[in-house]
């Protein structure tokens, strides 16, 4: 009872908003945390290893990408750089402890009470947020997120207005599943720890279930059970596939976000651009990004893509009157602060591809 009362005081209830957009939540804070064992997922998915049997090169490339590492157990072997340091958590009142093999957060003012953290969400490229399951229908999102590259804790986006002693937000089963499906191929019903083979954004996150395809291929029947060819989709539809986790126009409208989130919501930003609107069937996320690899960081890589359309008047596209050959990205897709109202100094490229204001 004492543990349950401590949790009631530590957890708070928020508004139901898609986590990938606003980090909102909904829930009953009166439930005691548990440490659920992995629940077998539906048999409609096979996992990356099955795909690798016939696609080893792509599978190897993908396995080394941030996409593949967006979810991990909070253990030393699994989490790697995403494992935060023990001790006091930033400027908060929380203390991170290790009890047996489990990382736990001590609740302020209740030194004998702890709450376990079970999963790390995020690859570690920027921030990592930690969650714990409360029961079969709730998931708690910890109020503090860790940024490995800076060795710094920040308040988790969307939780800036919570009381300093609040442990975090509780997500309903529906919101928890939406969140986890941007970090795992499949999530059990009722919501619980995904199977280990489904951790991370996998082949089937984008290509759909591979069960029939793999069964046919293993039987030597390569004409049955074919997967959808994403490369043949119209650009708009392909963008919306990426937008499931990178923010569609519908997500922005539903969450009542300001129109300037064209950097944080990349799909929304791209689809708001004149470049896309004048070529809706050809300009997609994969025009510039290979989803099986990490995004390139060299500006010259993207400049070459821009110049395929904007290099000569004969291309029927305008050439830049200021600098027709270089600096396309720094001028037209500048880095802007990603999270307004947050102390997190993270910047993202504006995908609206705008003409700079004079």
UniProtKB/TrEMBL annotation:
A single MF term (Gene Ontology): metal ion binding
Keyword annotations from UniProtKB, A to Z: Electron transport, Heme, Iron, Metal-binding, Signal, Transport
Record keyword Transport present: yes
Superkingdom, natural source: Bacteria
GO cellular component: cell envelope
Main localization, broad class: other
Location of the Tetrahaem cytochrome domain: 200-311
Keyword Electron transport: yes
Protein name as catalogued: Tetrahaem cytochrome domain-containing protein
Native species: Armatimonas rosea
Annotated InterPro entries: Multihaem_cyt_sf (IPR036280), Multiheme_Cytochr_ET (IPR051829), Tetrahaem_cytochrome (IPR012286)
Localisation per UniProt entry: Cell envelope
């Amino acid at each position: 009872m004492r543990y349950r009362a401590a949790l009631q005081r530590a957890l708070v209830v928020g508004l139901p908003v898609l986590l990938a957009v606003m980090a909102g939540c909904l829930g009953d804070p009166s439930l005691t945390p548990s440490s659920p064992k992995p629940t077998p997922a539906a048999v409609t998915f096979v996992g990356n290893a099955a795909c690798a049997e016939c696609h080893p090169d792509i599978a190897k490339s993908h396995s080394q990408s941030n996409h593949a590492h967006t979810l991990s157990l909070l253990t030393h072997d699994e989490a790697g750089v995403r494992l935060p340091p023990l001790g006091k958590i930033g400027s908060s009142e929380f203390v991170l402890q290790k009890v047996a093999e489990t990382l736990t957060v001590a609740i302020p003012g209740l030194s004998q009470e702890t709450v376990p953290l079970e999963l790390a969400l995020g690859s570690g490229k920027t921030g990592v947020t930690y969650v714990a399951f409360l029961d079969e229908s709730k998931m708690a999102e910890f109020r503090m997120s860790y940024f490995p590259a800076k060795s710094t804790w920040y308040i988790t986006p969307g939780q800036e207005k919570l009381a300093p002693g609040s442990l975090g937000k509780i997500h309903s089963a529906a919101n928890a599943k939406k969140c986890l499906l941007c970090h795992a191929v499949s999530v059990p019903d009722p919501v619980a720890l995904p199977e280990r083979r489904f951790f991370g954004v996998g082949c089937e996150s984008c290509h759909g279930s591979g069960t029939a395809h793999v069964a046919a291929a293993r039987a030597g029947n390569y004409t049955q059970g074919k997967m959808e060819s994403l490369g043949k989709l119209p650009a708009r539809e392909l963008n919306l596939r990426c937008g499931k986790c990178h923010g569609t126009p519908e997500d922005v409208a539903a969450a009542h976000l300001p129109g300037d989130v064209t950097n944080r919501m990349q799909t929304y930003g791209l689809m708001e651009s004149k470049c896309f609107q004048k070529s809706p069937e050809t300009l997609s996320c994969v025009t510039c990004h290979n989803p099986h690899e990490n995004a390139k960081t060299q500006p010259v890589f993207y400049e070459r893509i821009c110049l395929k359309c904007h290099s000569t008047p004969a291309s029927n596209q305008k050439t830049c009157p200021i600098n027709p050959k270089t600096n396309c990205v720094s001028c037209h897709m500048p880095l802007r602060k990603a999270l307004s109202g947050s102390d997190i100094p993270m910047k993202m490229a504006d995908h609206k591809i705008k003409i700079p204001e004079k």
